[in-house]
Amino acid sequence: MPEILLPIHTDRLVLRRFEGRDLDAFHAYHSLAETARFLPGPAKSYTKSMEYVGKYANFVYEKEGDWLSLAIEAKDEPGLLGEVVLKWLPGRGQAEIGWSTAPQARGKGYATEAAAAVLDLGFGDLGLRRIEARLDELNTASAALCQRLGMRLEARHVDKWFYKGQWATELVYAVLADEWSRESEPTPGP
Ligand SMILES: CC(C)(COP(=O)(O)OP(=O)(O)OC[C@H]1O[C@@H](n2cnc3c(N)ncnc32)[C@H](O)[C@@H]1OP(=O)(O)O)[C@@H](O)C(=O)NCCC(=O)NCCS
Q1: What is the sign of the dihedral through the CA atoms of 106, 110, 114 and 116?
Q2: Does domain 8-134 fall into CATH 3.30.450.20?
Q3: Is residue 190 scored above 50 in pLDDT?
Q4: Domain extents in the chain
Q5: Is the CB–ligand 1 distance for residue 35 below 6 Å?
């Protein structure tokens, strides 16, 4: 795997490695039931947040199963706004993307902007072929995000998971490298 050059700058954001100072802000949104609703496990305890921030801060992306984990921060205002993660899946050129943002950072397109930068990284320097997202059908905010990114709805797996006390239907969205580069090209003028 090539070296991952951080931080990544987008129009409004900086994507960087997590640091210890992110712990309180991370815990502030991951301790909320609304954040945990569509994530595995309950709302995070402080020690669970410590575990995650430690893992994210020290991530290595060298082999299948590794997670690339980036902190999202606004360019003009320091402070953690959320995270975007990329899991290296088994098989050549495969990965899964995931995201969470703090409630005050939602509704501004930040998650879309951060995820697009990670797709650029994945299909660029990381040389991936396919990036997918797996989500609960009831997570309409995540489905809308996939659609804004131009990801294709590939599958709907009925009652695929039992979590949070109920059966959940899984949606699988995906985008391929050549689809992403086509999407990313500026629309030609008349
Ligand atoms: C999933 C999650 C990250 C989506 O957040 P989000 O704020 O809806 O997504 P974005 O940051 O891309 O913002 C999109 C919204 O900002 C609006 N927006 C404003 N400016 C925008 C811009 N420049 N670009 C794109 N969208 C913009 C969009 O219209 C959209 O608004 P809408 O929700 O009213 O349609 C968030 O809901 C979350 O963290 N949920 C909890 C954790 C979770 O479920 N994670 C995923 C598990 S699969």
Answers
A1: positive
A2: no
A3: no
A4: 8-134
A5: yes
pLDDT tens track for 117-174: 999 999 999 999 999 999 999 999 999 999 999 999 999 999 999 999 999 999 999 9
pTM summary value: 0.95
From 81, 104, 112, the mutation candidate for ligand 1 (largest count of ligand atoms within 8 A of CB) is 112
- Top mutation candidate among 84, 97, 108 for ligand 1, by most atoms within 8 Å of CB: 108
Res 102 pLDDT > 70? yes
